[in-house]
Automatic annotation (TrEMBL):
GO terms for molecular function: enoyl-CoA hydratase activity; isomerase activity. It comes from Hymenobacter lapidiphilus. Keywords: Fatty acid metabolism, Isomerase, Lipid metabolism, Lyase. The keyword rRNA-binding does not apply. This is enoyl-CoA hydratase. Belongs to the enoyl-CoA hydratase/isomerase family. GO terms for biological process: fatty acid beta-oxidation. SUPFAM superfamilies: ClpP/crotonase (SSF52096). InterPro entries: ClpP/crotonase-like_dom_sf, Enoyl-CoA_hyd/isom_CS, Enoyl-CoA_hydra/iso, Enoyl-CoA_hydra_C.
Amino acid sequence: MTPEFILVTPQARPQVALIQLNRPKELNALNLQLMQEVAAALKELDKDPEVRVIVLTGNERAFAAGADIKQMAGRTAIDMLLIDQFSTWDQIRRTTKPLIAAVSGFALGGGCELCMTCDMIVASETAKFGQPEIRIGTMPGAGGTQRLTRAIGKARAMEMVLTGEPMGADEAARHGLVNRVVPVGQYLEEAFRLAASIAKMSPIAARLAKESVNRSFETHLDEGLHFERKNFYMTFASEDQKEGMAAFVEKRPAEFKGR
Ligand code: HXC
């Protein structure tokens, strides 16, 4: 079925797919259907052997201004529980391919949480990251209190979550929340450039390395090192590792096949 609220381009660049959130009038407010469409597209692209890296973007004015407040406003706690929207978010988090958010304008509430669910963020200098839920009587629910705190530290995260005041792109870069900040006309191209540099690598090594970096958030050092070691050994089961090391020795570029 053609999605209604997103645009999907499996080969936006060679081996790089693009998902664009496309509810511009509502500043890409994340209603349930939009999130399901994002999750379904990611699942499909994750299986597509022609795709190695995925870029997720909005438009110049907004990456996303949060969950759809109009859709949520009248719901009870039990409605929210039964709707179980976070199973969709959990599925997004399980994407195995590198996922880059290209962010311009508002990345607020669920929008900030969605770009933090990605592996890397390329920001335009107009990007504004914030968790303003407190201003509408609620709080972050899709990982904001956890991921923002890990990214920028307790004091600054606490201030943002308790005041709702957003953070600009330059400060976000200084704190390590985003990878880089570029002029507004270049944020998508810059994300594609980053994606292309990863798409050249072995997709097997990229997948295992992504999994290992993410594990550092979930476990203690001893267990994380053990996990990393297993994944490191596993790369030696791939043709790509043989090709990569042979290419180095033979002083030629490696050609990775994802096997
Ligand atoms: C529904 C939204 C929306 C949202 C904007 N719109 N954000 N609709 N949900 N989150 C709609 C507006 O109602 C308006 O439509 C249109 O988009 C343009 O927005 P304006 O407010 O007119 O634009 P502007 O004055 O430029 O202000 C931009 C803004 C503001 C500062 C981003 O829109 C805003 O504060 N939005 C809400 C941000 C927020 O609180 N996000 C957190 C949501 S809770 P109409 O038709 O009315 O003109 C959340 C919880 C996540 O995300 C939990 C897990 C999923």
